[in-house]
Amino acid sequence: MSETPDTVVVVGAGPVGLAAAAHLTERGIGFVLLEAGEHPAAAVRQWGHVRLFSPWRFNIDAAAARLLTGAGWIRPDDGELPTGAQLAADYLQPLADLPAIKPHIRYGARVTAVTRLGLDRVRTAGRETTPFLVRLADGTDVLATAVIDASGTWDLPNVLGSSGIPAHGETAAAAAIEPALPDVLGRDRDRFAGRRTLVVGAGHSAANTLLALADLAGQEPGTTVTWAIRATDPTRAYGGGEADALPARGAIGTRLRAHVDHGTITLLTGFGVQRLSPAGTSIEVSDGHRTVTADRIVSATGFRPDHTMVSELRLDLDPIMSSTRRLAPLIDPNEHTCGTVPPHGVDELTHPEPGYYAIGAKSYGRAPTFLLATGYEQARSVTAALTGDWPAARTVQLNLPETGVCTSNPTITDDTTPGSCCS
Ligand SMILES: Cc1cc2nc3c(=O)[nH]c(=O)nc-3n(C[C@H](O)[C@H](O)[C@H](O)COP(=O)(O)OP(=O)(O)OC[C@H]3O[C@@H](n4cnc5c(N)ncnc54)[C@H](O)[C@@H]3O)c2cc1C
């Protein structure tokens, strides 16, 4: 065992876990931040080549900015759209390296389970006063008074199979399947150059990859690009073009449509992946009626929260979204884009298990409407509640402009394409 039970455990040193660390520091609460990767922002670095769709002003937590500024940090230009790599290098790494935070972070510390010391999920007596037990992959146990789970969803991509379970042959074909957002024009170029790639998915991760592949096809003979979506009409994936409320999103859709119109990208609509079969060194992908032969398949079908590590805690999960039930209607992608999610805090994030809060991308479950700015407000509200400062916890201060959060007169300093989760 390590840590005294007056410690808050934060899981994940992504942007939201680090924001929680900043708020805990300001409030003088002891904490330990457990990060599976060897650096802060391990997930963000994996999509470091993608440009965010929201400018710096919405990507920096207020408490983090105060601590950083006090240490002489130069704030990036509020209007610029950073890449994931810039978000990590220019903000998250300096934040994690602050003397007030660095000693409390453990890297290479993957949490495998969170429970109550000596109590399983069924035992009620003494539950509220019993410390949390946080188990790491190396077998170490850490005790905590509260757990803030900011472990994101990046590690659990959706499957290709259109029924929500792996398609027949999907597991066996794993070597040919890429998770979302490979760095097609950079690090991962060799895997795509001169090869046939099938991209599955209709969101902006798919769009970003498709545009990069279309560029590659212009540079490398033999590179072909096929795009499969379940919908029978691609209009929603294209966004609103020049009339789109989010200019960067509109620009992506317009470029995508042009590539489809010109035949650089072959679009298959109404295509739900049912089966993958090996065909020599390639893979045949079928929807039961049609078959596409590809060398590489990019699975851009979204992400899921992993609740297995907290399965001994008492959670009240929405049956559709896998967020808390109270949060679900506020983030429902059928009703909201990221810019229209209403502000929310500790009350919407509370589970029946007192002292456990999932915040950040994980808190949204399967909803793709998460924004850093809402995650930072979650961190502020939850840490205020942990000190008993309920007036501050319940005064939800977030005020996002409905459209400007995704691009607000942004300054783009090169020609990379902004990514987007606003779908
Ligand atoms: C390509 C892309 C572009 C985006 N662009 C924007 C944008 O422009 N604006 C915006 O507001 N949002 C954007 N988002 C959405 C969202 O803000 C990001 O996904 C953000 O990284 C979520 O932050 P997080 O801290 O919740 O989770 P993450 O960044 O995923 O961080 C989670 C951390 O937890 C660690 N971890 C995971 N499991 C464990 C474990 N079991 N034990 C210990 N550590 C663990 C991971 O290694 C990681 O470091 C974008 C997302 C993507 C994918």
From TrEMBL:
Domain of life: Bacteria
Keywords noted in UniProt: Oxidoreductase
Pfam families to which the protein is assigned, alphabetical: Pyr_redox_3
Coiled coil: none
GO molecular function: flavin adenine dinucleotide binding; monooxygenase activity
PANTHER family given in the database record: FLAVIN-BINDING MONOOXYGENASE-LIKE PROTEIN (AFU_ORTHOLOGUE AFUA_4G09220) (PTHR43539), FLAVIN-CONTAINING MONOOXYGENASE (PTHR43539:SF78)
UniProt-recorded name of the protein: Flavoprotein
Lineage, highest ranks first: Bacteria, Bacillati, Actinomycetota, Actinomycetes, Micromonosporales
